[in-house]
Amino acid sequence: MSWPQLNLSFPIWARNSCATRRTSTASYAPPELSQAPGERNLVRWLITIFGLLVAVGLLVAIKGAQIGMLIGFGKQAEKDGPPPEVVGTAVAEEQSWEGTLTSVGSVASAKGVALAADVPGVVTRISFESGATVKQGQILVELDANVERAQLASALARKELATTTIARTRALAAKGAIAQAQLDADEAQLRTATTDVEGLIAQIAKKTIRAPFAGKLGIRSVNLGQYLQPGTPVTVLETIDAVHVDFSLPQQRLADVAVGQPVRITVAGAGTPPLDGTIAAVDPTVEATTRTIKLRADVSNKTEGLRPGMFVQVAVVLPEKTKSVTVPATAVVHAPYGDSVFVIEERKPETPGIATTPDGKPVKVARQQFVRVGSARGDFVALLDGVKAKEEVVTAGAFKLRNNAPVVVDSTKQPVPKLDPRPDNR
Questions:
Q1: Which residues constitute the domain of residue 39?
Q2: Are residues 303 and 354 in the same domain?
Q3: What pLDDT, on a 0 to 100 scale, did the predictor assign at position 13?
Q4: How far is CA 214 from each of CA 139, 211, 240, 297, 298, rounded to the nearest angstrom?
Q5: Which pTM value belongs to this model?
């Protein structure tokens, strides 16, 4: 199979017409299009470069104005200096403090026992409640003693018979009516009957548990009908109107303490005033492990603020007093390189910065001063070196200061420090 041949050639009149049109179009081209291609590209490049230069110039002018404004702000800020910080202050005072040796101690009962049964038996009566205050000799618990009481009645009968018999025998012996051996036997019978009675009375007494001294009872550990073995605990009895406080001091302080020396006992966090006491005993030996000496103080506990087993703070009062420059404890800034305070000084005229605030308060300077911290009393600490009396120190806001920082003093809202603070327990 063969496909037909197609004739795609244009006729002669069509080819002549196209050529005539191309010749006519070329002869009537505009003058600007008749320029050379190189000249047209040069013009475009010049226009582009000019536009870029104008844009860059505008940007430079804007940034220059902004930088000039920032430089002006910087110069004004350098002239005004950093803004002052608002702080609270206090004046360092010279106070006469008594010397003390501080330690921690434990409260022990001056007189305390664990009450227990001496003999076995069943509880038939309980005559106390947990935590009750009892007198000496008061009955607390009674055990079943019916068998012993029956035996006691029999023994009393034998004793009565022996007493009657010995009276008759003595009368007959005085007349010589009976032998001396009969008299001796009857007297031995009386002594035996008397001993039996006393033994049963003692056995019955052991089945009655009494308070050996006046004090306060603990929690009851027995119930009615319970069978008690010998040694079974019933409760504890403590005297809390007076207690002991045991504490320790370093061996280097042995020469500074003596029996009868006053001590001050404080319960941390209780908010109660300190209790006074005296040293009652000093252990003659030194603890080999800690190299400390043990001491015991007697403390009156009429208010029952101390209980056996409590943790307390002990301060042994020394006879001499020392004068120290004291400041509130909040004035001391603790740091790894040392303790310091900020001392308030008047601003010098040549110091950069504002002299007064907009509301008219004077601006002062806080100078950092390193110090050596001594003992503490309440809200105050003693400074051994670095600060003199009557110098003004920062007590509130010291954490945000640096050396020679400008400050404005406003002490109206800070709490008043006290040597014996007693904050409200909320």
A1: 33-68
A2: no
A3: 42
A4: 12, 7, 10, 22, 18
A5: 0.55
